[in-house]
Specification:
Pfam family, one: ABC_tran
CATH topology of one domain: Rossmann fold
Shape: globular
GO molecular function, one term: ATP binding
Bound molecules: adenosine-5'-triphosphate
Order of helices and strands: EEEHEEHEHHHHHEHEHEEHH
Protein name: ABC transporter ATP-binding protein
InterPro entries: AAA+_ATPase, ABC_AA/LPS_Transport, ABC_transporter-like_ATP-bd, ABC_transporter-like_CS, BCA_ABC_TP_C, P-loop_NTPase
Number of strands: 10
Keywords: ATP-binding, Cell membrane, Membrane, Nucleotide-binding, Transport
CATH superfamily of one domain: P-loop containing nucleotide triphosphate hydrolases
């Protein structure tokens, strides 16, 4: 039987008297798009940052493909095949779009020095070009990222997370601040990337935090609902829509 890509068991993190995450457990299966929703302050980001090695949880265990990654650094996780996007844009405004993609792969590939002295761009150029085409940003590939619209920069930002061909990608509010007319495009892109990565044939799994409910319901295979640091429900979009506790605590607000 195939095990989960990501397994989080009884994760806890407090900030003083605030129990931001109070014993959260869930599993993400290979190829799954797993949504995380919940009201502001329900602990989504704290859970996310714990999984990504950005904060140290007080208790609990995090496994990637069966391997304990609870105390790994973000760099180690990147090398193990975990990618991420942030709520706020992480593009380098003065570099071209293509160079942003090349830089994004560096963490995964080793030190800056080894890359500087590696022949050519070590195959990363092909990967960058494939993503540029897939994300339909060819016409701006040689522009400085800072000159693009916010929506285009968001696309570059998401593409950067895929440069290292990750098995698992955590996306923190991919639609935040994006013009509603672009939201459908981001959803289609993520579905495409989930099915077949640009140069590989392996499906990748995503965990997506997002407040845009239509986007989450359309994109995700399963959704976890967090309220006050705990799991209120996990289920398919239809199950979540029909869950009375979720409606009362969240969707009904
Ligand atoms: N660095 C911190 N120091 C103190 N309290 C924090 C810190 N980070 C988060 N918290 C608190 O922990 C709780 C959970 O916050 P968290 O940001 O994880 O929620 P969230 O669900 O991601 O919220 P949002 O949807 O607004 O991003 C909140 O009460 C928040 O105020």
């Amino acid at each position: 039987m195939i095990g989960p890509v990501l397994k989080v068991t009884d994760l806890k993190k407090a900030y003083g008297a605030i129990q931001a995450v109070g014993g959260v457990s869930f599993e993400v299966m290979p190829g799954e798009i797993f949504g995380v929703i919940g009201p502001n302050g329900s602990g989504k980001t704290t859970m996310f940052n714990s999984v990504l090695g950005q904060i140290t949880p007080d208790a609990g265990r995090i496994e990637l493909n069966g391997q304990d990654i609870t105390h790994k650094s973000p760099q180690q996780l990147n090398q193990l095949g975990v990618g991420r996007t942030f709520q706020t844009l992480q593009v380098f405004g003065k570099m071209t779009v293509r160079d942003n993609l090349l830089v994004a792969a560096q963490e995964h590939q080793g030190s800056m020095w080894s890359r500087l002295f590696a022949p050519g761009d070590s195959g990363l150029g092909d990967r960058a070009d494939a993503l540029i085409d897939q994300f339909r940003i060819r016409h701006v590939a040689h522009k400085k990222a800072g000159e693009l619209s916010y929506g285009q920069q968001k696309l570059v930002d998401i593409a950067m997370a895929f440069m290292s061909e990750p098995d698992l990608v955590l996306l923190d509010e991919p639609c935040a601040g994006v013009n509603p007319s672009l939201v459908g495009g981001i959803s289609s892109l993520l579905k495409q990337l989930n099915q077949t990565r640009a140069s590989g044939k392996k499906a990748s799994s995503f965990v997506v935090i997002e407040h845009n409910m239509d986007f989450v319901m359309d994109l995700c295979h399963r959704i976890l609902v967090m309220v006050e640091g705990k799991v209120l429900a996990v289920g398919t979009p239809d199950e979540i829509r029909a869950n009375k506790a979720v409606l009362d605590a969240y969707l009904g607000n």
